[in-house]
Amino acid sequence: MDEDALVSLRRELHRKPEPAWREFYTTARIVEELERFDLEALHVGPEALAGEHRMGVPDGAELAEWYDQATESGADPEILEALEGGYTGAVAVLECGEGPTVGLRVDIDGLPIEESEGKAHVPAAEGFRSEHEGAMHACGHDAHATVGIGVLEAIAESDFSGTLKLFFQPAEEVIGGGKAMAERGHLEDVEYLLAVHVGLDHPTGEIVAGIDGFLAVSHLEATFTGESAHAGASPEEGRNAIQALSTAVDNLYGIARHSDGATRVNVGVIEGGTAANIVAEQARLVAEVRGETTELMEYMRGRAETVLESAAGIHDCELTVEVGAQAPSAESDPELASIVGGVARGVDGVEGVLERDDLGGSEDATFLMREVQKNGGLACYVGVGTDHPGGHHTPTFDVDEATLAHGVAVLAGTIERLADRPV
Amino acid sequence: MDEDALVSLRRELHRKPEPAWREFYTTARIVEELERFDLEALHVGPEALAGEHRMGVPDGAELAEWYDQATESGADPEILEALEGGYTGAVAVLECGEGPTVGLRVDIDGLPIEESEGKAHVPAAEGFRSEHEGAMHACGHDAHATVGIGVLEAIAESDFSGTLKLFFQPAEEVIGGGKAMAERGHLEDVEYLLAVHVGLDHPTGEIVAGIDGFLAVSHLEATFTGESAHAGASPEEGRNAIQALSTAVDNLYGIARHSDGATRVNVGVIEGGTAANIVAEQARLVAEVRGETTELMEYMRGRAETVLESAAGIHDCELTVEVGAQAPSAESDPELASIVGGVARGVDGVEGVLERDDLGGSEDATFLMREVQKNGGLACYVGVGTDHPGGHHTPTFDVDEATLAHGVAVLAGTIERLADRPV
Amino acid sequence: MDEDALVSLRRELHRKPEPAWREFYTTARIVEELERFDLEALHVGPEALAGEHRMGVPDGAELAEWYDQATESGADPEILEALEGGYTGAVAVLECGEGPTVGLRVDIDGLPIEESEGKAHVPAAEGFRSEHEGAMHACGHDAHATVGIGVLEAIAESDFSGTLKLFFQPAEEVIGGGKAMAERGHLEDVEYLLAVHVGLDHPTGEIVAGIDGFLAVSHLEATFTGESAHAGASPEEGRNAIQALSTAVDNLYGIARHSDGATRVNVGVIEGGTAANIVAEQARLVAEVRGETTELMEYMRGRAETVLESAAGIHDCELTVEVGAQAPSAESDPELASIVGGVARGVDGVEGVLERDDLGGSEDATFLMREVQKNGGLACYVGVGTDHPGGHHTPTFDVDEATLAHGVAVLAGTIERLADRPV
Amino acid sequence: MDEDALVSLRRELHRKPEPAWREFYTTARIVEELERFDLEALHVGPEALAGEHRMGVPDGAELAEWYDQATESGADPEILEALEGGYTGAVAVLECGEGPTVGLRVDIDGLPIEESEGKAHVPAAEGFRSEHEGAMHACGHDAHATVGIGVLEAIAESDFSGTLKLFFQPAEEVIGGGKAMAERGHLEDVEYLLAVHVGLDHPTGEIVAGIDGFLAVSHLEATFTGESAHAGASPEEGRNAIQALSTAVDNLYGIARHSDGATRVNVGVIEGGTAANIVAEQARLVAEVRGETTELMEYMRGRAETVLESAAGIHDCELTVEVGAQAPSAESDPELASIVGGVARGVDGVEGVLERDDLGGSEDATFLMREVQKNGGLACYVGVGTDHPGGHHTPTFDVDEATLAHGVAVLAGTIERLADRPV
């Protein structure tokens, strides 16, 4: 694919962002592209994902709404059918003779963020802003999916000898799809795994050959159940779920920092109550905690659970906590990182190569990396710098499309090089 | 209407609770009943309500959903058409010769509460539980509407000489319809106004001839707007709207009690944020404050505004506050209350008459009462006791249907008596 | 005593305010005055108070400091000795022949408030501002003690036939002395009990013949004990008592208002921690809850205890709660109030008599009132209006000294009248 | 000094811990020791400290109390006189011929912590527990001062050729003395500066040759001033300083973590209000913020100021904030660290040498280190491992006295070695 084709595909995907497990249109569009190749295998639906390990799948009504929208947008009904029930994503296998099996993992989901309409925001200015109100590719996964297709094409057209497996992973943003993809079996024979992310505050022209410092993460969903009462006539009869939640929020953010390393906490979603004149019977929050190590994450989760329990107690509310999606930390293997770095230095447009960097965030690519490493393989998470005006997860995030080609060149180059590597 | 007919109509309405401004089915059903009578006039839609004074009308999508549901439930399309845009409720005028003009106001809206499915809950046990999930007649307005029809029929069949105007008012629960109905002009010639409420902790057989102590009330809707950020990678770049809201909730409930009398505050609805891993850009709360007098309510509102403003400031958020629906306090006129009491003492099944009682809540009937009193008329708010297992605004609220007849008899009897009253 | 003598005594006491149980100088000064009379008995120290019922007595070091100060101020060492250990206050018995036994209770303690130095503040302007920094007669008990002496003199010089018992009660402000005085036995033969308070927002010239509406009150002292840690090097090892306290404060003020009547809550004192760089091991709060009835006070106390317990739990702290001083509500007897009112109407300078009013605060005079009423006697709490520039318990509170004579005249007049009342 | 002499001096100092700027006895005792040597100069009082740069000096009454206590403990009155007004600490200059000028800085202050009385706590078991109730050497500064004397003696008795300056610095715990000592001029000619700390989670036998990772720190003292009111009679008239403080505490701990590195926040002291029944007019908190870099500390301070300002606003309180003591971060110079490491490896009892470690706390030794480095000199902060049962700043902290000799040997050895270093 030339640069124009990459840009065009990326923009198409950008227009149709779909949050976790709702990537119906996106998957169908990717599969259409995949069908251009002479693949050994193309896994979609339950063949691509270990169903029981999917985390954070929305309810049927929500899935149906996005499924219908994908249909209306012209997605191939036959493909869609295979994805029913939120089995989005795909695994493509390209065999090119003898040689190592190399995996490349890209994620494909969007975010529940309203995209900027500002003139300075290129997608708005150039007419490819999100058509799905309230959803946005605000983390570059549209670019990742595009790079994935680009790499596949480059390898298919190259002299590469070996097998390339491409993992189009859904639901990264909710730490929901990584484990399900890692556990489906397609990684068993993968000797080298690459994963990629654009941006991360690295400018266009910079490549990070080996990202570490993935924060371990755990999601928590807490529901406070009290008792409703007429707020004017008998406020004392209520057990106020909103007051309980509010006390919990104050104290979750107040969990003590830890001297062993970085921690994080965020209450990302709240909702509760039904009307101004009713003491709220129920309130719910969705939170996450992170730690530089799994231990630090668990410290945060332990403290968070205490906070939630006692905050409920202050207002005589019952509490249910669901510990949701979790991801471990992982390390990039230096040998593989070094190969990536070597290749990157020779790529047009690449002006700097960082040997390593910390992500400072979480990623469920770590499930796939650990799976490969457990089997004796090597893994490396690659950063492709791109000038991005707004931060990740903000309404003005965007990628410099010149960098799509960088990603393809670095990754495809590395894969080719691996075919020659003595085992 | 005999008791069976009253019970049957009440249960029919109970099955189809519709919250404020969405009483499409309810209004249509009431209008059907009204068409049985030889009315001088029947006002619906913009004829019944001063549109600009309606408060808390939901957006078009929400209205459309309930409108469609009413259509599907078999409501008369022609009537529905007149109600478009949330012009629910009706005013019926029955002329019966020379004499005073008497008004009766009943409210007709339901609440956003999920009705109990418990066996001990009569509507569930006897099969007339709400068919609208998440909505419920949890304050007896189904009974009020039924009593309204019952009184109309009783007067139509009586020797009453004068004019009866029946006000089926929508949106009482959001303090949204009273002012719009009071300002439409139909009260101008009303000399006596009666309003009615069942229950209020008074048992079956008890009548309260004159309720006072309406708490003045004001609704507030506050939106905190901060800035989203990736909660793992750059939490410091966020301006956290959920933390701002949470601080506001703590401090709203903490507004100092007032030595001049009763005050209330409630944050009834909260919502905010989009995903666990995004620092929330936006959060919203819906609250109400009340006071035993308008001054006390204004003290609460003033303090609430300060709290909201500064809570936003703590997290560098912008704040918008909409001061929503408000209702004043009002007093029942003793002369009219005394007539009600006299009539009540002679009604079958009535075992006790209280001269007066405090509501301890708010009501936008006060707009209608004050309008009539301003014109020199008399107003009286009448309580009809009914054993209710759960409190008002709770999932197990119910009315003792034996009391429907009490309400009809006391009100119709009073109206008849008024025809004979020397001016 | 003429007006000048009353003013002079009041100012002397005003200069030396002593908080609860520290009224050493004040008691000694009162006893000096009492020694002018031919008393049947003068009880001080453990004879005046049931020691085990004293509440809120400070520790020995604190008592010693105020004791020494009283000595330095020239208080009679012999009298002081009798008060050791915080047995302040006195009971004086004046026998004047056959007749009823009448009690008058006045309180004598000051408050821990820094008195205003403003020019508009009369005590500052006229040179009798508090000489005890941080303490102040900000509730008029200097006037009460003065009126007590004035009444004793007036009765001693009158034709009154009967017995007058004067109760100079300490520690009213901490609800600490009333029960101890009520339980000491001196009320057993008291047939009529009067108590008096100046001000209460009633202007000079107004007398309230019978105050009711005493809020029942309960004090709570909570200590949170966590674990200290170095705030920089190992914050996660701390269990933060200050965070626990802060969460408690938020939620104590957030206890739901009650539809049965007025409630109050206040956290009046906080302290905790030792240094900026140490996670606080300990924090303490002193709070009070009140209710229009004992039940309402108990509702507040029950909720407060839940809040404290769970707030401690959020931060893994231990909690100890001491439920401190409490006082019940009480009612003035109408028969006695009516006599007070009758007398008041004839007193020079009295321009208005209110039949009753609500205190809206708490008072441990209620212990004495209830004790007398239990024995079949009558009690009445009398308000003596006085223009006061600042509110009670504020740095600019002051009394209009013209009203000292009103108090003496109304109370002495009532006592004389009681001698003539047929039993 | 042999080990016994070191232990004996350390225990003597341990018995008399004195918090920041109150080290009267400690300084006098150190000066007594210093007088044993043939010093070129001995600076105490304003000669040792630049008065205007002292931070966190307590008020006169507090100073007087500790001064008197030192007198009573038998400190030399003549020395004490020189320290009046809180000019504690000392600078000793030992000249031993030609050669480099080397500085050694030790801190000498205790902490406001109540020392454990537990049997397992050696100072309690062996009878040298703190005699100053509420104060404790809980961070090992007693050991530091002792090591300082030990090093001086070792050098005086050695062949060292050059000048040794010993800085006995007061008020480290409040970040109060470092700048004042750094600015007094005695560092101008210092070519090498050593500083030392025991423990820090390093066991006996371990030496850290170069500690970095000092957190920059800033102290904040905030006073909220509202308005007092009677909590029962007119709560609405209060402007509640305790509620403001409590909201501030919640939100200070809730300041977002920063992706650039470690941050800290602690509210270490709170106090407010005067009585349970008075709405608190005033409340005060003492807090600190830290950051891995000065920028991070400033981020925290900026956010803290916003929180404080708006929290005051919620309750209509005025706010005054004093930004107190601050310290920058600093780095140990590798050349000097390497010399320390070389010496340490040859010291008896030293079993391991770490090349560097992070402090993870703050230290105002950084002022002295930066001053020397600014002048072209080298600085190194040395850790001397010691088994400590409880953590720093806890009631059971203690040092393994065997390590006193390690400290002396490593530091004296390094100083001797420096005399031979080619410039």
What does this structure look like?
Four copies of one chain form a homotetramer. Chain A has 423 residues and is an alpha/beta fold. The two termini of chain A are 31 Å apart. In chain A, the strands form four sheets. An eight-stranded mixed β-sheet of chain A has the order 1-2-4-3-5-16-6-14. In chain A, strands 10-12-8-13 form a four-stranded antiparallel β-sheet, covered by helices on one side. Chain A has a two-stranded parallel ribbon with strand order 7-15. The radius of gyration of chain A is 22 Å and the shape is globular. Chain A folds into two domains: 3-214 and 330-419, Aminopeptidase (3-Layer(aba) Sandwich), CATH 3.40.630; 216-327, Alpha-Beta Plaits (2-Layer Sandwich), CATH 3.30.70. Chain A has helices at residues 3-15, 24-34, 60-72, 77-82, 122-125, 141-156, 178-182, 241-253, 294-314, 334-345, 365-374, 402-419; strands at residues 41-44, 90-96, 101-107, 162-169, 192-198, 206-209, 211-212, 216-225, 229-230, 263-272, 278-279, 282-291, 318-327, 352-354, 357-358, 378-384. In chain A, helix 8 runs antiparallel to helix 9. The longest helix of chain A is centred in the C-terminal third of the chain and has 21 residues, at 294-314. At the A-B interface, strand 9, helix 8, strand 10, strand 11 and strand 12 of A face strand 9, helix 8, strand 10, strand 11 and strand 12 of B.
